[in-house]
Design brief:
The chain is α+β, with helices and mostly antiparallel strands. It contains 3 helices and 4 strands. Helix 1 (about 50-60) packs antiparallel against helix 2 and helix 2 (about 70-80) crosses helix 3 (about 85-95). The N and C termini lie far apart (about 40 Å).
């Protein structure tokens, strides 16, 4: 357990729409977990910080999303997200 209660090497990047976003400094993976969930329930939302940031930027810049589920699946695949994570689906649906 880390000094502040989380796993060692896990850096909290911030919170967004009910999620806590963290970065594993040893692997580079970006994680998300719901604010009211245990940090142990975190899921990979990107294989590295650059992909996470690009995924968010793509979401913010995309206009006229015709199929939110398809777009979210494309974002999840492009970022290397855990296939069972709902993070990208919920982010996309919040923008449409």
């Amino acid at each position: 357990m880390g000094r502040l209660g989380g796993p060692p090497g896990l850096l909290l990047l911030g919170g967004s729409d009910g999620y806590l976003i963290s970065l594993d400094c040893s692997t580079g993976e970006a994680f998300a977990c719901l604010r009211d969930a245990s940090i142990q329930e975190r899921q990979v939302v990107a294989s590295d910080f650059a992909r996470f940031f690009r995924g968010l930027a793509t979401l913010f810049l995309e206009e006229g999303i015709r199929d939110p589920d398809e777009f979210a699946s494309e974002l999840a695949a492009a970022t290397g997200s855990d296939p069972s994570a709902q993070f990208w689906q919920q982010r996309v649906k919040g923008f449409t």
